[in-house]
Design a protein that fits this description.
The complex is a heterodimer of chains A (292) and B (427).
Chain A lengths: L1 H35 L18 H6 L3 H33 L5 H13 L2 H11 L6 H8 L14 H27 L2 H9 L4 H12 L1 H16 L3 H6 L11 H11 L3 H31 L1
Helix pairs in contact in A: 1-13, 3-7, 3-10, 4-7, 7-10, 10-13, 12-13
Chain B lengths: L1 H20 L11 E5 L6 H16 L6 E5 L9 H10 L6 E5 L3 H6 L3 E2 L13 H7 E2 L2 E2 L1 E3 L6 E5 H6 L16 H15 L4 E2 L7 H13 L19 H15 L19 E4 L1 H7 L7 E4 L12 E2 L3 E6 L5 H11 L2 H11 L6 H7 L5 H13 E2 L7 H16 L7 H17 L1
Parallel strand pairs in B: 1-2, 1-3, 9-10, 12-14
Antiparallel strand pairs in B: 3-13, 4-13, 5-6, 7-13, 8-10, 8-11
Helix pairs in contact in B: 2-12, 8-15, 9-15, 12-13, 15-16
The chains are: A mainly alpha (292), B alpha/beta (427).
Protein name (chain B): Carbohydrate ABC transporter substrate-binding protein (CUT1 family)
Keywords (chain B): Cell membrane, Lipoprotein, Membrane, Palmitate, Signal
Membrane topology (chain A): Multi-pass membrane protein
Chain lengths: 292, 427
């Protein structure tokens, strides 16, 4: 009994630093954000903060830039998920087989994940430069027109999608790889005896058995995709014509440039609810899947 | 073992707590006037500031003293302003702080900074643009210690190659209007078969407000009404349409590109460039480029030369308990001697007439050109508490106008932006 108690104390003591940090930097700020969302908090006059009810929330749904940012992020998510997850799966399949030099490829595919997003964005900014960039130089040399990748309102978001997918795919690749290596070889052997071809092998054995892994990847990719900010911040500053402004970027701008903490907190709450609902739907889908 | 564990946990908690505390009160324990500045100690500007503070301490030894703290800001202005905002919530602002020109109204409106008219002994000496920039609701709240400006840099060799007689170029006393300026661009585009000017359209930031608002003012237009409450009938009037049509035509006719090559002027890619005193410093590393500077083009309707201006300033916090000493220090910081020191160290434009006289024999003819243009035509950016939003809408309007296919109807574009500005002003 006594030792049990002591163990408990030790356990809680170990947890304390984590709780303190989480509390200070996550839980308390979240609660404050919800409270500020109902006030007219202006960064420079913290003492004159007043409770204004749901005023901020009404404003948000009339704010064309916030609505545009929601539209932009949905476009981003719809394109980035299949491209990034598809690439990750492809890469995982490529390096799953025992081959010489696999390690090299693994490192190569994974290396963008380790680099800072700002570095990646600046790098691509140079590669995509319309007049001197490597990509347009190649396009011109093979007889195509140079593309205004980041300076065209139609292409800017798609360019960011491709850069983001390229950057992030390595991480999902590793998870897929772990999933692939968990598939027992006996299943494949059984398939071999039944005489399945390569495609049947993939669609009827690999893919169904990867389902739990895929769901995990979908959820994590989706949530991180919604938080897009650094790539547009560095590469396009939200332009051209607001075509790459994202909710998190807009929240940052309103909060820290415009100093409207109340308004930006309200956007945070709305955006948090949107992500929450999407995660819930996914969570439910996962549960149903487990009961099958 | 258990004791060791406990020690470990306590040590960790202690780290967390002290890490949050920081080392705020390092210099404010004495009677010294505390000064926060946004530059780093190692820059020429920072070194000059330190020298000036040292001189103040020597001169007023035993009477007043001052301590300077350098809080370098990041490229986009973060860091320093974050610290100011944090100090505001915890009531730990210094006695004197630096702030960027466009922040004057917001800080004054929030009651963060105090009026300083009574402490300034040389107000008549300051350039009108400096007074305009630091004045909110009739009172002077902040005083700029340097100025900035933009001119049209031209590559002498390339212009000669295109058959342009350099003696006929635009001058400050007789500046070209937009049409004459576009003719030059046409000649250059015809000769070199590529865009003629780098106007910095790729810099989607305060630059677009700073460098392009003078066109609107030259035309006689404005961004918001005089009382600062609305943009209706102002930002979408005939003058605004004309100014933005000029900006759009620069891109539409192929004179300027929205995606200029980096350092294109420096490497002889473009014969023209919008540049400031910093461009002169940059060009020292490109001795092959022989260049001159022309004044800003003016509206054909008014012919009035208006050029960009504005820079960082000093202000006194409203909560200081050392008003007298802080006032003395601000006056000392903007005395002719101090301003001359910082102007020469930083290669920037002077903020006062007396300083212009002091430095004009010591700086390059190019810098002197910008100094002269600045003293005759500088226009401060609007002094509005909602400046960040208004500026961003203006920046987006410039950027949107350059997409001439999507925004061929300038009137419609401006009507739309007026709504956004009004919304920002009403908050």
């Amino acid at each position: 009994m006594n030792t049990n108690k002591r163990e408990n104390i030790a356990a809680y003591s170990f947890l304390t630093p984590a709780f303190v940090l989480l509390g200070l930097f996550l839980i308390i700020p979240s609660i404050l954000a919800i409270y500020y969302a109902f006030t007219d908090y202006y960064l420079l006059t913290p003492d004159k903060r007043q409770f204004i009810g749901i005023g901020n929330f009404i404003e948000i749904f009339k704010d064309p830039i916030f609505l545009q940012s929601l539209k932009n992020i949905i476009i981003f998510v719809v394109f980035v998920i299949p491209i990034q997850v598809g690439t990750a799966l492809g890469l995982a399949l490529l390096i799953n087989k025992q081959r010489k030099g696999n390690m090299l490829f693994k490192v190569a595919y994974f290396s963008p994940v380790v680099l800072s997003l700002v570095v990646i964005s600046v790098l691509w900014l140079y590669l995509l430069n319309p007049s001197e960039g490597l990509i347009n130089t190649i396009l011109v040399n093979i007889g195509l027109d140079p593309q205004p990748f980041l300076s065209s309102p139609d292409q800017a978001m798609l360019t960011i999608v491709l850069v983001s997918a390229w950057q992030g795919a390595g991480y999902q690749m590793l998870i897929f790889l772990a999933g692939l290596q968990n598939i027992p070889s006996s299943v494949y052997e059984a398939g071999k005896i039944d005489g399945v071809n390569k495609w049947q092998n993939f669609f009827h054995i690999t893919l169904p058995l990867l389902k739990p892994t895929s769901i995990l990847i979908m959820i994590t990719t989706l949530i991180s995709a919604f938080k897009l900010i650094i790539q547009p911040m560095v590469m396009t500053q939200g332009g051209p014509m607001n075509s790459t402004i994202t909710p998190v970027y807009y929240i940052y701008q309103t909060g820290f440039s415009d100093r409207l903490i109340g308004y930006s907190s309200a956007m945070t709450v709305v955006f948090g609810i949107v992500i929450g609902i999407i995660t819930l739907i996914q969570h439910k889908a996962t549960k149903e899947d487990e009961t099958q | 073992m258990k004791k060791l564990l406990l020690c470990l946990i306590i040590a960790m908690l202690f780290t967390v707590i002290t890490a949050c505390g920081g080392d705020e009160e390092a210099s404010s324990d004495s009677d010294a006037v505390s000064v926060w500045v946004h530059t780093s100690k190692e820059t020429p500007e920072g070194k000059a500031m330190q020298t000036i503070i040292d001189r103040f301490n020597k001169k007023y030894d035993g009477e007043y003293s001052a301590a300077i703290e350098f809080i370098p800001r990041s490229g986009s202005g973060g860091g320093y302003e974050d610290k100011i905002n944090a100090a505001l919530t915890t009531n730990t602002l210094p006695d004197i702080l630096t702030l960027d020109g466009p922040n004057t109204a917001a800080y004054a409106d929030a009651g963060m900074i105090a009026p300083i008219d009574e402490y300034l002994t040389n107000k008549d000496d300051l350039l009108p643009s400096i007074i305009e920039q630091g004045t909110y609701e009739g009172k002077m709240y902040a005083v700029g210690y340097s100025e900035s400006g933009v001119g049209i840099f031209y590559n002498k060799k390339m212009l000669k190659e295109a058959g342009v007689d350099l003696a006929t170029l635009s001058t400050i006393d007789n500046p070209w209007d937009w049409n004459q300026f576009m003719e030059l661009n046409q000649t250059l585009v015809d000769t070199f078969d590529k865009p003629a000017i780098d106007m910095g359209f790729d810099d989607q930031s305060e630059w677009l407000m700073y460098a392009f608002s003078p066109f609107l003012w030259s035309q006689g237009g404005s961004i918001v009404s005089e009382d600062g409450t609305s943009a209706s009938g102002v930002f979408n009037d005939e003058n605004a349409v004309k100014a933005f049509t000029f900006i759009q035509n620069m891109v539409k006719k192929g004179y300027a590109t929205i995606t200029p090559v980096e350092k294109g002027f420096h490497t002889g890619e473009y014969p023209l460039k919008f540049g400031g005193s910093w461009t002169i410093t940059e060009l020292e590393e490109y001795p092959d480029i022989e260049y001159g500077i022309m004044p800003y083009p003016t509206s054909p309707d008014t012919g009035e030369l208006v050029s960009p201006s504005g820079s960082w300033q000093y202000a006194m916090s409203a909560t200081t308990d050392k008003k007298e000493a802080a006032g003395k220090l601000i006056d000392f910081l903007v005395s002719t001697e101090s301003l001359t020191e910082i102007t020469l160290a930083n290669s920037v434009l002077p903020a006062a007439y007396s300083v212009i006289e002091e430095v004009q024999d010591k700086v390059s003819p190019e810098l002197n050109f910008l100094i002269e243009q600045n003293s005759k035509s500088a226009h401060a950016r609007p002094v509005l508490p909602a400046y960040p939003q208004v500026s961003r809408v203006f920046q987006q309007t410039v950027s949107d106008a350059t997409y001439y296919k999507e925004n061929s109807d300038i009137q419609k574009l401006l009507d739309n932006k007026v709504e956004q500005i009004n919304k920002a002003l009403s908050k």
